[in-house]
Write a structure and sequence with these properties.
Length: 176
Amino acid sequence: MKTIAFLLDNNFEQAEYEDVNNQLKNKGYKTVLITTNDDKLVQARKHDVEKGDTFTADLFAKDADPSDYDALVLPGGTVNADNLRGNNDAHRIIKAFNESNRPLAAICHAPWALINTGIAKGKTLTAYQTLQTDLENAGATFVDKTVQVDGHLITSRNPDDIKNFVNAIDEMLKKS
């Protein structure tokens, strides 16, 4: 059974964690929640407006060994994504997946972390539309598609694209 790690902080988009997690579990994958937060209890948001549910992480990013997982998913949410892009433990994990060419999936605002880790340069990516200029300034080509796959990178725009995002992750894992 392949294991998928979710990496997040606080104030992540609930659907981009919970719905993606549930759909991947329904496809037979084991999932693990890793947090860069100082507490294992993490807070979701619903569209950055309404407070969402809380979830309990399995482990802290500082203790995570990226080689234990077959894929990495980065949920969005503006505050969450901003926290991930500035966190050294998150960078270590994200770079490890990139360097090993294992599936690395980012949705909505999460591709910000691909900018800060230097991964975005030269790649074709999608994200929430307000990230277009950021991605282009980082040397990426931005496309407005439900899902964009570039090598081992999978990016998606927003919660409306979750089904296609999950299917792309599943397809890539079946090939690996």
